[in-house]
């Protein structure tokens, strides 16, 4: 079979996207997804997404996300932003979109060339001496470091991701350095990619909330520099947790192709 695919990137977090509204691809084809994401034997990507027919009232589409290892995983923030740009490219949406992903319903808007994606509310942030842990749709370990540019994200990230208390199910691991005011630099080790990626949307969302929760910042808007580009996170702190969380940044189509599978 010849499969048409699209390649997108959001601050360097890159994805293969397939329009699966007619169900041409089975969601259980882990081997195929891993091969398509392989940077030497396939197209190459941090993850793969299927855009599927909406199942719920008011939705424009369904997002199904797989990590580069081919396994379906939890929410991908940059992926969600890219899928909204893809839905606009297909003409499914104009400047506003509503879709369901594994963590529930999301609203998004395309404005001034950026995709503004609403993330799920976050009720709980676990604070430890050396780090924080929270779920922003995907699990994230957040730790402050000095000299982030020289930090060994690959080895430190891998050992935290595989160690206690995460073990096999794992966590994504974010290393953060405060730059100035409300600007932070972040590098992320992603589970399922098992490597540092150039950016992680749920990761920078976790960092922004963690920096607010630990009084590193008092604004309700945090700017994050990732190795792949700049993202912004806005939110409302309430006594019940963080609400109205938005992940804002660019998402662009890189190319379209066909592959035999
Ligand atoms: N790159 C993503 C996160 C993708 C999921 C993650 N690797 C996991 O399995 O938890 C993002 O932009 O949020």
From TrEMBL:
Its EC number is 5.1.1.7. The keyword Amino-acid biosynthesis applies. The active site is at 76, 76 (proton donor), 200 (proton acceptor). Substrate binds at residues 13, 67, 77-78, 172, 190-191, 201-202. It catalyses: (2S,6S)-2,6-diaminopimelate = meso-2,6-diaminopimelate. InterPro entries: DAP_epimerase_AS, DAP_epimerase_DapF. Gene3D superfamilies: Diaminopimelate Epimerase, Chain A, domain 1. The record marks 140, 190 as: Could be important to modulate the pK values of the two catalytic cysteine residues. GO terms for cellular component: cytosol. Keywords: Amino-acid biosynthesis, Cytoplasm, Isomerase, Lysine biosynthesis. SUPFAM superfamilies: Diaminopimelate epimerase-like. Pathway: Amino-acid biosynthesis; L-lysine biosynthesis via DAP pathway; DL-2,6-diaminopimelate from LL-2,6-diaminopimelate: step 1/1. GO terms for molecular function: diaminopimelate epimerase activity. It is an enzyme of class 5 (isomerase). GO terms for biological process: lysine biosynthetic process via diaminopimelate. It comes from the Bacteria. It is found in: Cytoplasm. Homodimer. Catalyzes the stereoinversion of LL-2,6-diaminopimelate (L,L-DAP) to meso-diaminopimelate (meso-DAP), a precursor of L-lysine and an essential component of the bacterial peptidoglycan. Belongs to the diaminopimelate epimerase family. PANTHER family: DIAMINOPIMELATE EPIMERASE, DIAMINOPIMELATE EPIMERASE, CHLOROPLASTIC. This is Diaminopimelate epimerase. The gene is dapF.
């Amino acid at each position: 079979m010849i499969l048409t695919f699209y390649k997108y990137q959001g601050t360097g977090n890159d994805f293969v996207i397939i329009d699966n509204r007619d169900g041409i691809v089975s969601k259980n084809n882990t081997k195929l997804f891993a091969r398509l994401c392989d940077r030497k034997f396939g197209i190459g990507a941090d993850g793969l997404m299927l855009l599927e027919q909406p199942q719920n009232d008011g939705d424009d589409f369904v997002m199904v996300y797989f990590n580069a290892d081919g396994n379906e995983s939890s929410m991908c923030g940059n992926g969600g932003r890219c899928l909204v740009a893809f839905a606009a490219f297909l003409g499914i949406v104009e400047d506003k979109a509503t879709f369901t992903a594994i963590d529930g319903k999301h609203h998004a808007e395309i404005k001034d060339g950026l995709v503004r994606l609403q993330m799920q509310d976050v009720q709980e942030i676990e604070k430890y001496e050396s780090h924080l842990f929270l779920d922003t749709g995907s699990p994230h370990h957040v730790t402050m470091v000095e000299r982030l540019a020289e930090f060994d994200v690959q080895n430190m990230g891998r050992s935290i991701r595989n160690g206690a208390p995460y073990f096999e199910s794992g966590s994504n691991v974010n290393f953060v350095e405060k730059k100035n005011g409300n600007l932070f630099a972040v590098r992320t080790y992603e589970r399922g990619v098992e490597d540092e990626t150039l950016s992680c949307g749920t990761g920078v969302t976790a960092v922004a909330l963690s920096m607010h929760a630990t009084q590193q910042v008092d604004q309700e808007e945090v700017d994050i520099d990732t190795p792949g580009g700049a993202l912004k996170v806005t939110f409302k702190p309430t006594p019940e947790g963080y609400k109205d969380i938005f992940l804002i940044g660019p998402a662009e189509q890189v190319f379209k192709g066909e592959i035999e599978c």
